[in-house]
Predict the structure.
Amino acid sequence: SYSSKIHDEL
Amino acid sequence: MNIFRLCGDLSHLLAILLLLVKIWKTRSCAGISGKSQILFAIVYTTRYLDLFTSFVSIYNSVMKIVFLSASYGTLYLMFYKFKPTYDHNHDSFRILYLIVPALVLSFVIVHAYTLMEVLWTYSIYLEAVAIMPQLFMVSRTGEAETITSHYLFALGSYRALYILNWIYRYYTEDFLDLIVIIAGIVQTILYCDFFYLYITKVLKGKRLSLP
């Protein structure tokens, strides 16, 4: 999903 | 990871450490908004709770721990160790006007209704406006020390570099997250006025002072 992917940023 | 993201992270790290070292070396937090620092501590705390739930990389985890510790370290120096030097008369921005609307928005526009996701979204919205008390303080006192200007420039550049990173990721990974992108653009726009003053004054060796 969108939301899980952006969590690899700070 | 790409070059924009890496430069953004390093710029962010530089800003946070610069502030900490400045306060420590000068034994003073004059000109620094404690309210912005409180907001940043809330931002890092709500975003990096995922240290306990999801692992991305050693790099990510180490950076998160450094950001959190530096943020709380700054609060300790400002509100405890060097409290007498804290200029609270000029730090008069009402942070509830930022905390509450960001909280409401994070319930309205969010990818998923889970605790971690709402907290993460809240941290994104709050970060976008967290610098406002600091910029308000600079406008009230009409000036900023050169080192404070460097801090603000590094902190503002970080999200601008992240915007380039999102553009890059859109083309290379077909990846788009409108919540962070729009918040990141708002965050960067808030610094534009300051960027202008920084380039026209501080880089030419002058002190940042407002007319």
Notes: Chain B touches chain A through 22 residues (CB under 8 Å). The helical segments of chain B are 3-26, 34-47, 58-81, 96-108, 115-129, 132-141, 146-173, 178-200.
